[in-house]
Description:
Blueprint: H1 3-25, H2 31-74
Amino acid sequence: MDRKTKMLLALIAGGLWANAAAQLIRPTVAYAQQEAASERILRSIETHLSHIAASSLTIDLGIAAIRRDVGVIEGGLCVNQKICR
């Protein structure tokens, strides 16, 4: 090999080593930033879960009212002539 080829290969090898070293030296993302984002996501999930729980309670109340009305109809106390013929 001639001198130019050796020099070019040495520069390429040096660049590769510098690139690998930069990955080891470069600071990582601060964990505080990651934790803040995680806290924001968890608060959002908690808010959505509380909305789901409230909706579930509303549905449960609706089901209880339907059961009560069906019980009234089954007991023969129906006053709505469209339903009870």
